[in-house]
Design a protein that fits this description.
Elements lengths: L4 H51 L1 H5 L3 H11 L5 E8 L4 E4 L7 H12 L8 E7 L2 E10 L5 E8 H52 L14 H86 L3 E6 L4 E4 L1 H6 L5 H10 L8 H14 L1 E10 L5 E12 L5 E10 L1 H15 L9 H17 L5 E9 L1 H8 L1 H18 L5 E6 L2 E7 L4 H16 L2 E3 L2 E3 L2 E7 L8 H17 L5 E3 L2 H23 L2 E10 L4 E13 L3 E3 L1 H11 L2 H22 L1 H5 L6 E5 L9 H13 L6 E6 H6 L1 H14 L2 E7 L8 H4 L4 E4 L1 H5 L5 H16 L3 E4 L5 H10 L3 E2 L10 H9 L5 H15 L1
Parallel strand pairs: 16-17, 19-21, 21-22, 22-23, 23-24, 24-25, 25-26
Antiparallel strand pairs: 1-2, 1-5, 3-4, 4-5, 6-7, 6-10, 8-9, 9-10, 11-13, 11-16, 12-13, 14-15, 18-19, 18-26, 19-20
C-alpha cells in the first residue's frame, strides 16, 4: 500500500522535534560535562602546582635541574597532566616535560607570566593551544615569584573525548525512542488512512464522470458521514448530467435551423458584391482624375526642389551626380547646378578632398540603406573649406539592387565654429587662456601611454602654487590678482618649451608637463629658472608686486598608471616645499606619500578617539622656588592610542587644529581640569585654595579659539558648573598664535580677563613679537621657553635672555614661570636671577590625577627636588 501522506507529515514533525530535543540535550549535557571536568582539572592542576611549589622549594632554589626533572616526570603519570614546566624568577626554564623543546606558544606565556606581578597566593589560569593540542595552563608563583614559577598544563582533549562519549550514548537512547514512536505512529495513521483512501478512489471516479458507483465505508465517525454525503452528491450530479444532455440535443436542433438562415444571408451578400463591382468601375474613372491632380502636385514639389534652402541631389552608384537643386550649387560656391555637377563629376577630389571620409559615406549608405547627419569637410569653388552635414537614403528596385542615392546637404560651418569655441572654453582657463585641469590630465594620460610604449621616453610634472597670493589679492584687489596670474602664466610659458603643456588648475595653482626630457636634471633646471623668473618684481597697473612660488616635482613616472595619482604626488611635494619655507622646489619621494597616508590614518584615528574617550589629562606641578611648594598644576593632554600606545601632543595637536577636532579636545580638557580643581578644593579647602594666592590650574588652548566667541560661554559655563573662583583657572596660549591676529586676540583676551580668569603666554621668547605686547595684552603669567632654560648652564646668551625676561616680568607685575627645569644647577641659576616659579622634570614629570592628589595630600612640598638641590649646594660648598 502506498504510504499515506499523513504519515509523511507526522514523520517530518517527529524528525524536527527529535532534532530539537537531541540538539538541546547534547548542548546542555556537553556544556555541563565540560564545566564539571574543567573545574575538576582546575582543582587538580592547582593542587599539583601548589604541591610542587611547597615540596620542591629547595631544589628550585638550588636550580637542581635533575631533581626537579625527576619530580615533574612523576606528574605525567597522573591522568590529564599534559606537561609540567618549572622556571626561575627571571623566566629561565629549569626543567620541563616537553620533547624535545618547549613550544613557542608555551614559552610566550611563561615570559608573560614572569613579567606579571603576583601578589601573595595569586595564580593564573588560561587555555593554551599549541600545534594540535589544547591545554588548561596553570601558573603559580613560588614565594610570590621570588624563587620561580610552576607551570602545569592539563590536556583538554580528554574532556572533549568524555563529552563526545556521553553525547553518543545519549543520542543512541533518543534514537531508539524515536524509532519506537515512528512504529506506533505508522500503525495509528494506517487505521485512519484506510477509509480515506476509499473516499479518494471514489473522488477519482467522479472526476472521470463515473457517477454510477457508490461508496462502501463501514464507519460511524466523521468519515462515515462524509461517505454518505458523497453518495448523495453523486446521485444529484447524475440527475444534473441527464438534464444537461437533453438540453444539448435541443441546442443542436436550434443550431441547424440557424445554419439554414445563414445560407440565405450568403446569397443575399453575393448580390451585394455584384453591385460593388459596378461601383469599382466608377472609381477607376475617378482615378484618372486623381492622376491629373498628381501631375499638378509633382509640378508643385518640383518648385519646392528648385527653391529649397537645403541642397538636394541624386547621385548614381558610381558617384556621379544625376541631379541637384540650386541650393546645392550655392553651398559649393557655383552659380548653377549644371556647373556644380560638371566639376563634381569631372574631378570630385577638388570638392571632396577627404577621400577616406567620402568612401566611408558610401560604405555606410550601401550597408545601412541610409545616412543621417554625416559630417565632413568640403572645398568650395573659391577654395574655402566648409563643414557640411548630409542625410541620404538608398533607392533600390524590387530585387533589392541599388538604383541610385538621394539626399540633402546643409552648411554647418557656423555651428562647428561655435562648437570649437565651446570646446576651447571647456578645456582652457578663461583668465590666462592656458589649458585647464581636464586638458592637462588628457595630455598627461597620453604621456603615460607613450612612456609605456617607449623605453627612452622621459617626462616630468611640476605642480606650482604662488606664495602669499591671498595677501596680494586682499590688499591690492582682485584685478591686480588677476593681472598677476596672467603675468605668471606668461613667465611659465616662457620658461617651458614648445612641446610642454602649461596649465592653470584654478586659484593660484599651475601645473607643467615637461615632455621628451633627456634626463631628470632638465626638470630641475626648468624649476630653478621658474623660481628665478617669478621672484623678479611684477609691475601691474603702477604697482610693483613681489611674489614667489613653491614647486612640487615628480621625476620618476614609470610606476604610475593614472594621471590622478601622479598629480596627487606632485601636490604632496609642493606642500612639503611650502612647509620647508616656501620659494623653493621639492622632488617627490615615496616617503612623502607614506607620511601623507600616515597623517590620513592618524586623522581617522583622531576622530575615533573623540568618540571612544581616548584622551585624558595629566598634571605637572608648578613650583614656588622659595619653598619648593606646589603653586599650581599645568593640565596636559595625553592620547592613549589602542595600537600605538601613548602619543605625544606635538604629534597630533597640529593635525587636530587643521581638522577642527581641537575644539572638542580643548573642551574635554577644560572640563576635566575644572572638575579636578573642584574636587581638590573640596578635599583641601584651607591649605591650597582659601588663601590670598590660591593654587591654580593652567591649561593650554588653541589659538583658533580666539576666533570663536563660543570660548567665553564654555569657560563661564565650566566655572559655574563646578563652582570655581575664576582666579583658579589659567588659560595658556602660545606666543606664535597670539601674534597671528593681535587685534582679534586682544579683544578676546580682554573679555576673558573681565571674566576673571588668568591669562598666560606660553613659550615666551620663541616668537617674533614686540615686548610692547606685554603691556597691550592683559597677561598675568609669562612662561620662559624650555630651550632658554636648558641652555643657561653653558650658553651666556640664554642665561642673559632668561634674566632679562625675569626682570621685565617683575617690573610689569607679571608672574614668570621657567619651563623645562631638569637639573639642580638650573634651579640655582633661576633662584639667583629672582625667578619665583618653575616647572620641569627636576620636580616631577606629568603625573596622573591620583599621583597629583597624593602630592597635595603630603603637604604640597616636593621633597625629591629639595634633596637634589641640597646635594648640589653641599657639593658647591665643598
Amino acid at each position: 500500500m502506498k504510504r499515506p501522506g499523513l504519515f509523511a507529515k507526522t514523520l517530518g514533525f517527529m524528525v524536527v522535534v527529535f532534532g530539537i530535543i537531541a540538539t538541546s540535550t547534547s548542548v546542555l549535557s556537553g556544556w555541563q560535562t565540560h564545566e564539571l571536568l574543567t573545574d575538576e582539572y582546575k582543582s587538580k592542576a592547582l593542587a599539583l602546582a601548589y604541591s610542587m611549589a611547597q615540596s620542591d622549594l629547595d631544589s628550585i632554589l638550588e636550580r637542581d635541574a635533575a631533581a626537579v626533572q625527576s619530580r615533574i616526570d612523576q606528574y605525567l603519570r597522573i591522568e590529564g597532566v599534559a606537561y609540567v614546566l618549572v622556571a626561575d624568577s627571571e623566566g629561565r626554564v629549569i626543567a620541563h616535560t616537553f620533547t624535545p623543546a618547549v613550544p613557542a606558544r608555551v614559552q610566550d606565556i611563561v615570559d608573560l607570566e614572569t613579567r606579571h606581578t603576583f601578589e601573595g597566593g595569586e595564580y593564573d589560569i588560561r587555555t593554551v593551544r599549541y600545534g594540535e593540542s589544547q591545554s588548561l595552563h596553570v601558573a603559580m608563583p613560588i614565594l610570590t615569584g621570588l624563587v620561580g614559577y610552576v607551570h602545569i598544563g592539563m590536556d583538554m582533549g580528554l574532556i572533549n573525548s568524555y563529552i563526545r562519549s556521553a553525547i553518543v550514548k545519549q543520542q543512541v537512547i533518543t534514537l531508539v525512542l524515536f524509532l519506537a514512536s515512528v512504529v506506533i505512529a505508522w500503525a495509528f495513521i494506517r487505521n485512519i488512512s484506510r477509509p480515506l483512501n476509499t473516499l479518494r478512489e471514489h473522488a477519482r471516479r467522479v472526476a472521470r464522470h463515473d457517477f454510477r458507483s457508490s461508496i462502501e465505508v463501514d464507519a460511524n465517525d466523521e468519515v462515515g458521514e462524509l461517505a454518505e454525503a458523497m453518495n448523495s452528491m453523486s446521485s444529484d450530479i447524475r440527475e444534473l448530467v441527464d438534464n444537461l444532455e437533453a438540453r444539448v440535443r435541443q441546442a443542436t436542433s436550434e443550431l441547424q435551423q440557424a445554419k439554414d438562415e445563414l445560407e440565405l444571408k450568403v446569397q443575399e451578400r453575393t448580390r451585394e458584391l455584384s453591385r460593388a463591382n459596378i461601383q469599382l468601375k466608377i472609381e477607376v474613372a475617378e482615378r484618372k482624375v486623381v492622376g491629373e491632380a498628381l501631375r499638378k502636385t509633382e509640378q508643385k514639389y518640383r518648385s519646392i526642389f528648385e527653391n529649397a534652402v537645403e541642397g538636394i541631389y541624386q547621385v548614381g552608384r558610381d558617384g556621379h551626380f544625376i541631379s541637384g537643386n540650386p541650393s546645392l550649387a550655392r553651398i559649393f560656391g557655383f552659380t548653377s547646378p549644371a556647373e556644380f555637377m560638371g566639376v563634381a563629376n569631372a574631378s570630385p577630389e577638388a570638392l571632396f578632398f577627404e577621400e577616406s571620409r567620402r568612401k566611408e559615406y558610401y560604405q555606410v549608405l550601401e550597408q545601412e540603406a541610409e545616412v543621417q547627419n554625416f559630417e565632413s569637410r568640403v572645398r568650395r569653388a573659391d577654395g574655402r573649406v566648409i563643414w557640411i552635414s548630409e542625410n541620404a537614403r538608398r533607392i533600390s528596385d524590387t530585387h533589392g539592387r541599388t538604383l541610385y542615392y538621394e539626399g540633402s546637404v546643409e552648411d554647418i560651418t557656423l555651428r562647428k565654429e561655435a562648437e570649437d569655441q565651446l570646446m576651447h572654453q571647456a578645456f582652457h582657463d578663461p583668465l590666462t587662456n592656458l589649458p585647464n585641469r581636464l586638458l592637462f590630465q588628457d595630455h598627461l594620460q597620453m604621456a603615460l601611454e607613450r612612456s609605456r610604449r617607449r623605453d627612452d621616453y622621459l617626462f616630468a610634472v611640476l605642480y606650482l602654487d604662488l606664495d602669499r597670493f591671498k595677501i596680494i589679492n586682499d590688499s591690492l584687489g582682485h584685478d591686480i590678482g588677476d593681472s598677476l596670474l596672467r603675468a605668471v602664466s606668461r613667465v611659465l610659458v616662457r620658461c617651458a618649451r614648445s612641446v610642454d603643456t602649461v596649465a592653470r588648475f584654478g586659484g593660484d595653482e599651475f601645473a607643467i608637463l615637461l615632455e621628451e626630457i633627456a634626463a631628470p636634471r632638465d626638470a630641475i633646471k626648468i624649476a630653478r629658472r621658474i623660481l628665478d623668473e617669478i621672484s623678479q618684481p611684477f609691475v601691474l597697473d603702477g604697482n610693483e608686486v613681489f611674489t614667489s612660488a613653491s614647486i612640487g616635482i615628480v621625476l620618476h613616472t614609470g610606476t604610475y598608471q593614472r594621471p590622478e595619482a601622479l598629480l596627487r604626488d606632485a601636490d604632496t611635494a609642493m606642500y612639503r616645499a611650502k612647509e620647508l619655507g616656501k620659494s623653493r622646489f621639492k622632488v617627490f619621494n615615496h616617503r612623502m606619500h607614506e607620511q601623507a597616508l600616515h597623517l590620513m590614518e592618524l586623522e581617522t584615528d583622531l576622530r575615533k578617539a573623540m568618540d571612544h574617550d581616548e584622551f585624558h589629562a595629566v598634571f605637572q606641578p608648578i613650583v614656588r622656588l622659595e619653598d619648593l611648594g606646589i603653586a599650581g598644576f599645568e593640565v596636559l593632554v595625553r592620547w592613549h592610542h589602542p595600537v600605538h600606545g601613548v602619543i605625544a601632543p606635538d604629534h597630533f595637536i597640529p593635525l587636530a587644529e587643521d581638522t577642527g577636532l581641537i575644539y572638542g579636545i580643548d573642551r574635554q580638557m577644560l572640563d576635566e581640569a575644572c572638575a579636578q580643581a573642584a574636587r581638590w578644593k573640596e578635599r583641601f579647602p584651607e591649605r591650597f585654595f582659601d588663601t590670598e594666592d590660591p593654587m591654580t590650574v593652567s591649561m593650554n588652548f588653541s589659538g583658533k579659539h580666539l576666533k570663536q566667541p563660543a570660548l567665553l560661554g564654555r569657560v563661564e559655563e565650566a566655572l559655574q558648573r563646578y563652582g570655581l573662583d575664576p582666579r583658579i583657572v589659567n588659560l595658556e596660549i602660545t606666543e606664535h598664535t597670539l601674534m597671528d591676529n593681535p587685534a582679534q586676540a586682544g579683544e578676546m583676551l580682554a573679555k576673558l580677563k573681565e571674566m576673571g580668569v588668568g591669562l598666560c603666554i606660553d613659550d615666551f621668547g620663541t616668537g617674533y613679537s614686540s615686548l610692547s605686547y606685554l603691556q597691550r595684552f592683559p597677561i598675568d603669567v609669562v612662561k620662559i621657553d624650555r630651550s632658554f632654560v636648558t641652555g643657561m648652564e653653558n650658553d651666556p646668551d640664554s642665561r642673559a635672555i632668561v634674566q632679562t625676561v625675569i626682570s621685565l616680568g617683575r617690573a610689569l607685575g607679571l608672574r614668570v614661570v621657567a619651563e623645562g627645569v631638569e637639573t639642580a644647577s638650573q634651579l640655582d641659576i633661576l633662584r639667583r636671577a629672582g625667578c619665583r616659579y618653575a616647572q620641569g622634570y627636576l620636580f616631577s614629570r606629568p603625573a596622573e590625577v591620583e599621583e597629583a592628589g597624593q602630592m597635595l595630600a603630603q603637604g604640597g612640598i616636593l621633597d625629591q627636588a629639595l634633596r637634589a638641590y641640597a646635594q648640589t649646594a653641599d657639593g658647591e660648598e665643598e
